Predict the 3D structure of the following.
Amino acid sequence: MRITLTAMLFVMGLLPQSAYALGLTCTVSATGVAFGVYDPTNASPATSTSNIHTQCSVLLVSVGAQVKISMNKGSSGSYANRTMTNGLNTLSYNLYQDPAHSIVWGDGTGSTTTITDSGLIAILGTSHNHTVYGQVPASQYVPSGSYNDTIIVTIEYSETL
C-alpha cells in the first residue's frame, strides 16, 4: 500500500501533515525558503536554503520502507522557472537538491528529480532531513514589494518486505 502525504512549503511558511498505513506512520514538515531583500543590480544570484524533515515510525516491529519526496511547480506551472508573484509582477526562482543549483527538485518529470529514502524504520522512529537550495537569478528588474509562491511537498511512503 502506498500513502501520499503532502505539506506546503511556502517560500516563507510551514505546514506539517501526518498519515497512517499498515502500522507505518510518517510526518513531513518544511521550513520556508526566505530570500530576504533582492537587489537586481547585484551580478550574483540570490540564494537561500530551507529544510524538509520526514519522521516515520511503526507500531510493533521495525519494517523496511521507502519514502519518496517530490515538489510541485508552484504558481508558475513550470519547473523550468518557478515564479514568485506580487500582484501581476513575477520574479523567477527555482528549488534544487544540490548546492550547485543544478538538480531541480520536482516530481520526476522532465528534467526534475525526486528524493527517495529507503531503509529500516525503527519502532522509536527514523527521521531524515533534506536541504532545499533556492536560487533567484540575478538582474531581474521588477517592482519592489513582497514576492511569494506556495510549493506543495508530497511524500509517498510504503512498507517494503
Remarks:
- The chain has no helices and ten strands.
- Residues 96 and 105 are 5 Å apart (CA to CA).
